[in-house]
């Protein structure tokens, strides 16, 4: 029994194949998007002399379909997209999604690939809050990877009996605490402002640093209040990543 016959048997005969080009078969199977359209799944069959590996691919049609209603145009969206692919062992190159499978594992691989396609297409339903929530995760990942030598400590209470004045990260590049506030919205900006002012009232020795998801999205009053209370600000996470190491090196000097 060849691979085509095996797949027909595994799909209980509810499958067909259309040869698009020599060695490329389009799978016609009960694998559908939410709107009822059939998923675009192709099998690139092994060529003569090549290993018996079959490539399951969408030939770039999944991201093209998604682009009509949703753009993967921010670092957060890109991170979610890459996570979906990694969790399903799917690769991407020049917009094409694909995974390789051997003949015995082809049926399960096709189902796994279709799940990944479905999840990618459903990114259009993600709420902005879900996408933005990765800001803290991406900041933490960068700190742990690139700023470890400056003694980062996550979630600290400079005033022990004030658990409402929590600092996201503490560093000690030169012995004096440097408190980093991760600011992704107006509420975080106000908390950072209040915290800095309260620490000053207690005559704590410290420096303060705010890293914004997007500084320009804050209202004018919130921007002004935080600017007056905080020692240093980075207006985006990208800016912080670009300049953080040199900034901390100067603080440590």
Provide the fold topology.
Layout: H1 3-10, E1 16-21, E2 24-28, E3 42-44, E4 53-57, H2 61-67, H3 75-87, E5 91-93, E6 96-102, H4 106-121, H5 128-132, H6 134-146, E7 153-156, E8 167-171, E9 178-183, H7 186-201, E10 207-212, H8 220-229, E11 232-234, H9 237-252
Helix pairs in contact: 7-8
Question: Could you please describe the fold and organization of this structure?
Answer:
The chain is α+β, with helices and mostly antiparallel strands. Helices cover 41% and strands 21% of the residues. The protein folds into 2 domains: 3-127, Yope Regulator, Chain: A, CATH 3.30.1460; 133-252, 3-Layer(aba) Sandwich (Trna Endonuclease, Chain: A, domain 1), CATH 3.40.1350. It has helices at residues 3-10, 61-67, 75-87, 106-121, 128-132, 134-146, 186-201, 220-229, 237-252, and strands spanning 16-21, 24-28, 42-44, 53-57, 91-93, 96-102, 153-156, 167-171, 178-183, 207-212, 232-234. It has a 6-stranded antiparallel sheet, with helices on one face. It has a 5-stranded mixed sheet with strand order 7-8-9-10-11, with helices on both faces.
List keywords for this structure.
alpha+beta; Yope Regulator, Chain: A; five-stranded mixed sheet; 2 domains; Trna Endonuclease, Chain: A, domain 1; 253 residues
Provide a brief overview of the structure:
The chain is of the alpha+beta class and 253 residues long.
């Amino acid at each position: 029994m060849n691979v085509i016959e095996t797949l027909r048997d595994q799909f209980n005969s509810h499958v067909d194949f259309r040869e698009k080009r020599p060695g490329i078969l389009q799978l016609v199977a009960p694998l559908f998007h939410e709107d009822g359209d059939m998923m675009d799944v192709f099998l690139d069959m092994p060529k003569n002399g090549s290993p018996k590996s079959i490539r399951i691919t969408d030939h770039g049609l999944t991201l093209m379909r998604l682009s009509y209603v949703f753009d993967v145009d921010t670092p957060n969206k890109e991170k979610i997209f890459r996570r979906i692919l990694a969790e399903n062992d799917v690769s991407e190159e020049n917009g094409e999604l694909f995974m390789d499978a051997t003949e015995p594992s082809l049926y399960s691989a096709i189902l796994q690939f279709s799940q990944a396609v479905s999840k990618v297409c459903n990114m259009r339903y993600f709420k902005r809050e879900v996408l933005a929530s990765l800001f803290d995760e991406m900041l933490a990942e960068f700190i742990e990877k690139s700023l470890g030598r400056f003694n980062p400590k996550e979630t600290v209470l400079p005033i022990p009996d004030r658990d409402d004045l929590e600092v996201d990260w503490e560093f000690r590049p030169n012995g004096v605490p440097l408190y980093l506030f991760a600011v992704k919205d107006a509420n975080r900006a106000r908390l950072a402002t209040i915290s800095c002012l309260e620490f000053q009232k207690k005559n704590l020795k410290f420096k303060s640093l705010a890293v914004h998801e997007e500084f320009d999205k804050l209202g004018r009053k919130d921007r002004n209040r935080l600017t007056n209370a905080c020692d240093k600000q980075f207006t985006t996470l990208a800016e912080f990543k670009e300049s953080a190491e040199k900034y901390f090196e100067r603080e440590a000097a």
